[in-house]
Amino acid sequence: MIKAGIIGATGYAGAELARLLLQREDVEIVWYGSRSYVGEDFASIYRNTSHAVNEPCKDDDMAKLAEIADVIFTATPQGFCASQVTEDILSKTKIIDLSADFRIKDVDIYEKWYKIKHATPQFIGEAVYGLPEINREKIKGARLIANPGCYPTCSFLSTYPLVKEGIIDPNTIIIDAKSGTSGAGRSAKVSSLFCEVNESMKAYGVAGHRHTPEIEEQLSYAAGKPVTISFTPHLVPMNRGILVTAYASLVKDVTTEEVKAIYDKYYQNEYFVRVLEPGLPPETRWVEGSNFADVSFKLDPRTKRVVMMGAIDNMVKGAAGQAMQNMNLLFGLPENTGLKQVPVFP
Ligand SMILES: NC(=O)C1=CN([C@@H]2O[C@H](COP(=O)(O)OP(=O)(O)OC[C@H]3O[C@@H](n4cnc5c(N)ncnc54)[C@H](OP(=O)(O)O)[C@@H]3O)[C@@H](O)[C@H]2O)C=CC1
Ligand SMILES: CC(=O)N[C@@H](CCC(=O)OP(=O)(O)O)C(=O)O
After folding, report:
1. According to the model, what pLDDT value does residue 143 have?
2. Residue 191 carries which DSSP code?
3. Nearest 5°: CA angle at 317, between 311 and 320?
4. Half-sphere exposure of 131 (CA within 13 A, CB side)
5. Residue ranges of domains in the chain, CATH in brackets
6. Nearest by Cα to 318 from 106, 17, 45
7. Minimum-distance ligand 2 atom for the alpha carbon of 210
8. Strand pairing partners for 97?
9. How far apart are CA 181 and CA 313, in angstroms?
10. Is residue 2 a contact partner of residue 28, using CB atoms and an 8 Å limit?
11. Which of 1, 24, 4 is nearest to 74 (CA)?
């Protein structure tokens, strides 16, 4: 039995993780961590877990949790995990951090984009970027996993094969992304209110969203050289889902069949990445509630560009599902254990 603790269980990502972990016979959730609801029944906050959970929320004491948990998930705001982790904790348990604290290798870049001082930069080097499709072997032996951001997961999976194969000029990549409102978390903010979001759409974080350096870093590894991209996220009036439409200039003449063969080369053995027929646009509704990432592309000979597209559920492949995929790897289990859900529709 894997004993798992969730700090930040009362947030959207943490509660989604609890929902996924509760379906498993081989995992026991030993800690539902919270800031605001300590002592209150978790199932009274997330009533979808009534009859499945009979536990009060606990605090966010990572050191205490490390004494009893085989794995700790931190689904907490930026800065929390970095402020808590110690060598002692890492010697007793494994940490999967859903925040951005350990995703970016250059601490100066992290501090510049997140506008907070990193409390434990000594652990950044050993943290493994938890995108299993790319870093599977490294993840298996890690103590500290940096679970990727939702936009970076979808952006990277959509563009990676063509960057890796040198088919496109990576410095011409423009990523247009849309997210459902759950991506903004559960805490009260004017920008997340019903009347602010419903029946409207807007770009935000234009030319400055903090996921930009995370996407650039991962694409730079794939390209083998520094990559600078344009990334514009949009907030759309739906609960879940991320849709990416990315554009880049082709550097050689390629056919649709050749590009499809490249996507298949990288993803045909990936359970969670579904390469659609060329030109068939991914839709968020076909991945909702699942850990799947649907990707596709269309060549545009007129502009000599390719349009790369992807869809994920921000709460699952973009957060909790990917975290559980990483946990499976850490514990030597088949990667899709507990994650074979067919997407919900309608
Ligand atoms: N939502 C999403 O789609 C995704 C989120 N993430 C990341 O996951 C993390 C959680 O996001 P999300 O669930 O959306 O956020 P929420 O705002 O919904 O939840 C935040 C959680 O952290 C707790 N918390 C708040 N402040 C503190 C603090 N100072 N110290 C400790 N715990 C605290 C909250 O406790 P309480 O409410 O009990 O006070 C709550 O459980 C973030 O780092 C986010 O960037 C990553 C990918 C996707
Ligand atoms: C719609 C919305 O607001 N989305 C969030 C992304 C949340 C997330 O996954 O980002 P991190 O894990 O990197 O914090 C945002 O743009 O900040």
Report:
1. 98
2. G
3. 145
4. 24
5. 2-126 (3.40.50.720), 151-313 (3.30.360.10)
6. 17
7. 13
8. 74, 146
9. 12
10. yes
11. 4
Pocket test residue of 17, 154, 179 for ligand 2, highest count of atoms within 8 A of CB: 179
Catalytic residue (one of 57, 150, 154, 195): 150
* 150 tagged catalytic: yes
> Around Cβ 154, how many Cβ atoms within 10 Å?
35
Rg (C-alpha) for the chain, rounded Å, is: 20
Q: How far apart are CA 278 and CA 260, in angstroms?
A: 7
Q: What's the CA gap between 120 and 279, in Å, rounded?
A: 45
Burial, 315: exposed, middle or buried (Cβ in 10 Å; 0-12, 13-18, 19+)? Answer: buried
Q: What are phi and psi of 287, to 5 degrees?
A: -120, -5
Check if the beta carbon of residue 310 is closer than 8 Å to that of residue 155. Answer: yes
Closest CA to 216 of 263, 174, 249: 174
Q: What is the pLDDT of residues 46-57, one digit of tens each?
A: 999 999 999 999
Cβ of 183 below 6 Å from ligand 1: yes
Rounded distance, CA 215 to CA 107, Å? 15
Model confidence at 129: pLDDT above 90? yes
pTM: 0.98
Helices (H), 35-106: 42-45, 62-66, 80-84, 87-92
- Which amino acid is present at 278? P
State which H helix or E strand residue 164 sits in: helix 150-164
CB atoms under 10 Å from CB of 212, counted, come to 22
* Tokens linked to 110: 């992290």
pLDDT of residue 346: 87
Q: What type of residue sits at position 141? A: G
